[in-house]
Amino acid sequence: MNDDEARTPGISRKTLLRAALIVPAAPLLLAGVPALASTPSGQPLTVTPESCDDDDLTPPQMEGPYFKPGSPLRTTMVDGAGTRLTVTGYVVGLACQPVTGALLDFWQADNAGAYDNVGNRFRGHQFTDAQGRFTLSTIVPGLYPGRTRHIHVKVQAPGRPVLTTQLYFPNEPRNNTDSLFDPDLLMNVQQVGSARQATFDFVLNVPGTPPSPSPTGTASPSPTPPGGGTWQPYQPYALGAQVTYGGMAYVCQIAHTSLPGWEPPNTPALWRRL
Ligand SMILES: [Fe+2]
Known about the structure:
By secondary structure, this protein is mainly beta.
């Protein structure tokens, strides 16, 4: 089931990608928002466009039984007890170029190792910013039988296939016994006071092309047409919104703002054909 077990040991994807990151002299501030991803020493990072290749692609993993569509748009999914955890990083392409507007849909167990299969506790999706960055505020997921500690995620660049994978924590005893565990999916985790800060960068199979437009775009979005309409880019679509595209009807699975390349046939995570 896990062909990553046969991977040749050596320099990990994360090592290679980290080598491609430059630490600027001054803290990175973009549009008034503090830089999110950081080195183990806490310094912010900038992605260079040169040192990623297809050996560095983030490996896929099984979805498991607990994914469900329709997670809320949010970067914070702290709910209840648990050790606070912040995960930050980049989504980049094969040229290490930042992927703007990439969809990340996270789901995980709560502090007790249980998934919410009715509501949306510890489920949330978000989009990378113009620098390809994301941040997730959550808790350290609890353990449940048969698995080591992990966070599930689906990552999708505009117009590209969905990458389904899992993120792991270092120094977990069960990493040695969980057949799904892949060291290439280890986060870099630091203890900061009573909380933990983790980083992870996703490398997607996206050729090096100019970044996509920001989801906030320059066009003025208008509300989703009630009762449907033709799909258009730069539109905020709510969960359950219906559109037509290419003569087919689709229903929105995850609330989002559309982008060129995110046409419904290209984004099965976002749109389900009716
Ligand atoms: Fe799981």
